[in-house]
C-alpha cells in the first residue's frame, strides 16, 4: 500500500480540532517511535525507513513494525508502507539489533486521531504534537493500493480537499520529517 499523506503546520489548533470533532470522535494516543538503520546508513541513503512504534491509547497498548520505501511523490513525501502488528516489541528491538540494525533516533508523538470517510475514501486525520518541536501539525492520509495502479495524485487531491475543509491552507503544508526536526533540535 502507498500512504498518500499530507502534513501541515496548524496555525489554529483549537479551530481545527473543533472541525474534526464535528466529523467524529477523536482518540488520544501517544506514539513511541524508534527508527533503525544499518551501520552504513543504507536505508536513509535509499530514502527508506524502518520503525518500531508502540501506541499507548486510553485502554490499550499496541506495537507495529513498519517499513517505508522511497518516496513515490516528491511534493508530498508519500511512500509505500508495509506494516505488521507486533506482540512483543522488546523481542523485535532485539531481533533488529541482532540483524545488524541500530537505533538512529527515538522520540514521542502525542496524537489525537480521527477516522474519517471523505471523498469516497477512508482517511485518518491526526493532530500531532512532538514535545521537542514547536507547534502542532495535522497529518491526513489515505491508503492507495500500489498493486492495482492506485492513483496517488487523485488520493492526494482528495486529501487536499479535506485539509481545506479543516481550515488548512496550501502554504501550511510541509514535508519536513519529524525525525529530522527532532535531530536538529537535539543538535542545538
From TrEMBL:
Q: Which SMART domains match?
A: CYTH (SM01118)
Give the matching PROSITE patterns: CYTH
**Boundaries of every CYTH domain copy:** 1-184
In terms of InterPro entries, this protein maps to:
Adenylyl_cyclase_CyaB, CYTH-like_dom_sf, CYTH_domain
PANTHER family, A to Z:
CYTH DOMAIN-CONTAINING PROTEIN, SI:CH211-156B7.4
Listed name of the protein: Class IV adenylate cyclase
**Source organism per UniProt:** Streptomyces daliensis
Q: Which gene encodes it?
A: cyaB
